[in-house]
Amino acid sequence: MSWGRGPRSWTSCPPSSRCSSSPSAARYTFTRRGRSPRFRSAVNPLAKLVEAALFASARPLTVDELLTLDPSAGATAVRAALAELRDAFATGDHGVELIEIAQGWQFLTRREYAEAIDRAQFALRPRRLSPAALETLAIIAYRQPVGRIEVDEIRGVDSGAVIEKLSERGLVEIVTRGEGLGRPLLYGTTPQFLEILGLKDLDELPRLEELSVALRPPAPAELE
Questions:
Q1: Are 133 and 216 in contact (CB under 8 A)?
Q2: Any residues with CB less than 8 A from the CB of 54 and at least 6 apart, and which?
Q3: What's the pLDDT score for residue 122?
Q4: Residue 99: helix, strand or coil by DSSP?
Q5: Domain annotation for the chain: domains and CATH numbers
Q6: Which of 27, 117, 172, 224 is most buried by its number of CB atoms within 10 A?
Q7: pLDDT of 93
């Protein structure tokens, strides 16, 4: 998909299907004469394992999740592998890049290719959100943790059903309980919300007027 941090599209495939081989995280170096290219691997075995896991995953993976690939490696080694992969894919030799997003890591198409991929509609799009859902989601995003009653007061209508739908879509979740009477449930956004917007964390939330635009996927291309 191509929302959030500029036009982007996910490169992952669903876990139920086999993925094609991931792009090689390797680079060319040149001999002293500057003519004959010599192929040199840019990654160590752990980085290759991490690359394979990220490519096969349909969502961003955290360091803790990647650590399960080889618990003996340690979190520091996993972070080093991620940094090595990020640097290897940062050159213009690849159509994808490794991005820290939604509290995890994921391969995304490079910005310069996302528009063409988006136009061809290769990427799966989530269903559109209704105006009521967009309004409710924006309130929760900027006021979280927030209770349903506060959301109702801001919107002027009951928001229970809308919040339930957003929860079913994986965009909001119960994060804690309030300190008031009855300790009401308080809601916040999910990592999937960050993933959709292409954000690393909530500190990168766009301005309020930009959020509704970012959450509306483009209209399907019309057939001529």
A1: no
A2: 12, 61, 66, 85, 98, 105, 106, 107
A3: 62
A4: strand
A5: 26-120 (1.10.10.10), 131-215 (1.10.10.10)
A6: 172
A7: 84
Using CB atoms within 10 A of its CB, is residue 124 exposed (0-12), middle (13-18) or buried (19+)?
A: exposed
State the greatest distance between any 2 C-alpha atoms of the chain, in Å, as a whole number: 77
Burial of 200 (0-12, 13-18, 19+ CB in 10 A): middle
Mean pLDDT of successive 10-residue stretches along the chain, which has 224 residues: 38 36 36 39 80 90 94 93 93 88 88 80 64 90 93 93 93 91 91 84 78 59 38
> Can you give the length of the chain in residues?
224
Residue at 182: amino acid letter: G
Whether 206 contacts 193, CB under 8 Å: no
Whole-number Å distance between alpha carbons of 1 and 165: 21
Cα 19 to Cα 129, 148, 192, 199: the distances in Å are: 30, 41, 22, 25
- pLDDT value for 194: 87
